[in-house]
Each structure stands twice: as C-alpha cells, then as structure tokens.
Amino acid sequence: MEMKPRSRDIWVAVGVVSAPSHIRHRTVLRSWLSLPDSDAATLSLFAVRSGGAPQRVSESLIAEQREHEDMLLLPTVAWDETRLRGTVLTLAAWLEHAATHLRARFVAKVDDDLYLHAPRLASMLRALRPLGDHSYLGALAWHGWRPALWDACGFGWTATLSSSNLKREGCDKAQAEVAGPFPFAIGYLVVLSAPLVAAAVASPAYAAELARLRAFRPARRELGINEDVWLGSFLHRHLHSLPIAFVDLSSFEGIVDLGRGRRRAPDLMIPRSAVAVHVKSKEVGAFLAVHDLFTQRNGSAERCQPRQPRLSCGTGCPKISVNAYTISSDLGRIAAAEITPSSCQPEGSANGNASSVFCRVWLEPGGRPAYSVALQRFVQCGRGAGCKEPSRWASPGERHRVRCCSDSPLPGWPVRAGCSVWAESDGPLLGGCHLDKTFEEAASICRGAGARLCSADELRGGCARGTGCHGDRHLAWSGDRFPAADPPLQLPPCSVASVAPVDLAPLVRTDAMLQRVLGMFPDRGAGWGPAPAQTERPAHYVHHDASLVLKSPWSS
Q1: What CATH number corresponds to the domain at position 58?
Q2: Domain housing 66
Q3: Gene3D superfamilies per the record (predicted)?
Q4: Is residue 69 part of a domain?
C-alpha cells in the first residue's frame, strides 16, 4: 500500500519492523504509538512486508491499516520472507520510503520488542542537531563483515575488542573479503539523519547490493542476516567519504537495554524519563509494566532536580560546550541539551574518515523522578501466631528462611493432620537448614529436593510448622507470586516509597476492543481468523520512587 507524501515536516519518522502475522503484538505496541505528541514532531509506522500475500492475509492487513492508519505495507518485499533476507529487505524498503515520501529530519528503525517514547526521542534529537548533516545514532558496537557471504564476524563492544575477535575467529583467514571493524547501531534502535538516509538510498551500491541479496543462496540454510550489522557495514564500505557523526547512546541512561542489563547486574534501573526501553521480550505483561511507568503522573515531579544530558567525544574532543535546558510536556519534564558546533574538532576515526566524530551520551547524577517496578514474593511465618515480624510482600533479593512442601510423600517428610502436603525444613534431601536465602536460592533448594516452596496459606495454616531449624517464628519464603487484591495506586513524592501492588492490565487501551483483539489473534502460525479465547493473567509489579527495577519478572 503506497502512502502519499507527508505535507508537514516532522523531526523523526519511526519504522517498527513487524511480521504480517504479528497482529496481536502490534496491538500491544500501539500503547507507545498512541502517546500524546503535543508538537506533532513524530510519525510512527509499522513496516510490514506484504508482497505476494494470499488474499486472506492481504485483506487482514488492509483492514488493520484502515482502522489504525499506522501501517506501511511493503509490496516490494515478499510477505513470507524469512529471517535470511526479510529483515534487511524490510529495513531497506523502509529507508527508501522515508527518503522518498516523508519530510523528516531523522529516520529511525526499531524492533518490535522496543518500548519507545517517540516525543522524547524527538526532543533528544533536537538537542543533538549541531552534530552535522550526517548523523548515525544508537547503542554502538563494532563488527566485521564478509560481503560475499552476507556474514557478520568479530563482534566487540570496542574497536580493539572487535579487531581481536576478528583474528581469534579466523575471519581474516576465510576465503572472502572482510570489511571492518566498523561501528554499527544495535538493531533495536537505529537513528539516521535524513541526509544520511538520502545518501545511502541514492548510492548506486544500494540497489546493487539489494539485488545481490535477492539472488543470494547461502550454503547454510539456517543462516540469518543481521540487518543492523549490514547497515553499519554499508555506511563503512560505501559512504566512508561523508563526515558521519557516530553517536553512541549505550551509556545514555535514557536508552535502556534489558537484555544487556540482565547480563551485567541482577537489577536494572529504568528512569521514568527514559526515551526507550529494549524490553527484549514480546510478553504483554512486560510491555504493560513499562507503559505504566511512562504514563503515571507524579504530582511532586516539579520538586525533583532534573538530570542534564551531556555529550563526550571519544576521538580528539576532550571538551564540549553544552547548554542544558528543560522542555515541558504533557508527560513531565524532559531534559535536553544543545551542543556548540565549534567546540568539537575531531582528529580522525577508525574507518579512515578524518571528519567523523564518535560521541557518547550520558546523564549527570541527580534526582530525576522515577518509579520502581519489581516482582514481589510473599514471606510468611511458619505458624499462625507468635511471629517475630509481620508477614508481607518482599523483594526477591531479600534473605529469609527456606521451608519446602511436596504434594506427594518424600522420605522422612511429615504430613500434619488436616494438611494435604508433606513439609520439611531440614534433612538429607535439603542438605540441612537454610536460614538466609534469596527467593531464587530458596526455590532452587526446594526443586533440588523434588519439592516446591510452600504457599502462604500452607505456612499460615501450620502445615510446615515444627519441621526443624527453629523457624516457626521467623519469616520464610512462600511460592505466592500475586497479591490477592490490588489496593489503589498511591503515587508517592520523590522521597517516599510505595509498596502498593498494581494491576497493569487496564493501562493500555482499556477499551473492550483491545481485549477482544488480543484474544482473537495469536502471534504465530496462521492466525488470520478468530482463535479460542485466550486469557493471560497480567503480572503484578510494585512501584517505588527511585527507579524502575526489573528483576526479570517475566522469566521467573
């Protein structure tokens, strides 16, 4: 479906790469697509391949576009293209459309597991406009590329590490040309200035490379081509004469990658003022949690000191003059900054382009208003009365005693009258007493014995009482994950924490149509007609003031 050229200027056009069958997930993603944009500075569209689609698929996509007016159907890309070519061809078609039909100063491509606050992205890009005409932004990493094989090789977070990995992996010894290492923006968020997009699309190498890709038949059928690495390699191989400003957002607190964060630390901080969150999951509950963080208002936000973004050039630019200011919006106060163009004089870069500059963005310390979202577990005493502290919802990182229950008999485990479970706190199967364990440690201990954590009712009812380790009067972990009832959400001031659990289900498109659509369309398979009703109990999270803390709730 060809779209007419846009008559108004916009700051950033965002293309969300989405497969034709992902109807259900597009409905969830419309949570952030519908965020208010008072300046009308953004345009967000789903880029969906549709070439040669069967009639039922084509009619479904056209009906969805007519209803929401947020889809760009790409007839030049086969609707059933696989991971092999589909992502590169879809990205290329989106860039061509943006260069031809959209009057945008920046063009972004995002994955469909990213939650994006597009108005804040536009504000951030306004602040970065002195960088020059040709800008390339994202969480930058480094890679090598073998053009003949359409293969990425030698990943590294720095140029030095990538160069070392190229040699270690033997990329330079393969019977194919190796380009790199070069910087590339990781695919969940890639932003290019409009002049850079125009230069890429107009390059003779662009059409030639895509034609070569369509004819490509790899020796390994399972090979998938990384569109983000390909784009970085294309800029490196064919546009190296342009003065490109590479802006690394990986240290910018407003861009949060949950996938990378879980490898670095058990908890990951997400400020309420974040620009984008790479959820790294397509689970509905995860998106609703982040959407809740972005849309809840904090009445005391004006009393919180905002942070200021700063830029640091990694090549030949020890100092940058920054004029920080604050932008008001319907969703709170957004920090932004202007950079003095003449303050940064680059001295060269790794790709041989003496006029390229590498920058890094981060936030200064400060009390930016935010909330915390953490999955809570219930801790309960081992007897109904005489507890030393009250039962409560607790963070999984706290340390408490371990008591295990089994629905079937285990050697040496007692069962109390009136109870239907066998319980133990000590003994050979458990390896002795466990007094101070986190929730995950406690659950693992019980699983190792062929059992589970007792429920709060089982602990409260005394079914695990008297099982050793002198634990009847102390709090022990239960397996309870969800609160029985949801008290009203109280938005706290910046210095006060709240432990009120929140049901996140109503926070995205609360109309009945959303629930109907979520039930009708699965994310995989044919999925083009009504399916049996699906109910998905939303995860419950807890809000605090300092930040959004995600402890991988959707994986526990």
Answers
A1: 3.90.550
A2: 10-142+184-233
A3: 3.90.550.50
A4: yes
